[in-house]
Specification:
InterPro entries: Acyl_CoA_acyltransferase, Bact_Acetyltransf, GNAT_dom. It holds the Pfam family Acetyltransf_1. This protein has a domain of 114 residues: Gcn5-related N-acetyltransferase (GNAT) (Aminopeptidase), CATH 3.40.630. The chain has 5 helices and 8 strands, in the order E-E-H-H-H-E-E-E-H-E-H-E-E. Helix 4 links the parallel strand 5 and strand 6.
């Protein structure tokens, strides 16, 4: 799926646009992903263990719905959804450049997702969250429904569910 430009707001005088990701975005997307993950102070050893699951290539890009948040033509956020069936889907990626964290960029991206879910008639979104992002998702209305094992051994991630109002 490749949507046209679907959202534009001005934040602090800088326009932010959400558009469908394309292969030309990959390098900047991966830069945002790595900088956002490193922002939480994870060791290089842990980052290396997670690297294969973090980075996006053309095959991954083609395998699910990907969007980027652009600020002045540069990628400042990345998010993706995989559709599992006609009732549910999973938030696979949700990354905001550290310089935009706490400034409404994540909220803009999540509201976009809510609108997309309504358009697709998908009532639920599963989120396997980084522990540091759990509070953000709770603030957006998601609830913890379980945990999932992660690396290193013994680490778990919160599994959350967001349900659209009225479902």
């Amino acid at each position: 799926m490749r949507d046209e430009d679907l959202s534009c707001i001005v934040r602090g005088g800088k326009p932010l646009n959400i558009i469908a990701a394309i292969p030309q975005h990959l390098s900047q997307m991966n830069e945002v992903i790595l900088s956002a993950k490193r922002h939480w102070g994870y060791s290089e050893e842990m980052m290396s263990a997670w690297l294969p699951d973090l980075l996006v290539d053309e095959d991954v890009l083609a395998s699910r719905h990907f969007w980027v948040l652009e600020e002045k033509g540069s990628v400042a956020g990345v998010f993706s959804i995989s559709v599992e069936d006609d009732q549910s889907c999973e938030l696979e990626d949700f990354w905001v450049s550290p310089r935009l964290m706490g400034r409404g960029a994540g909220r803009l991206m999540f509201v976009f997702i809510q609108n997309w879910l309504r358009e697709q008639q998908l009532p639920e979104l599963t989120i396997v969250s980084d522990p540091n992002a759990k509070g953000f998702y709770e603030h957006m209305g998601a609830e913890v429904v379980g945990t999932k094992p992660s690396l290193p051994v013994g680490r778990t991630l919160p599994v959350m569910r967001f349900t659209l109002e009225g479902h």
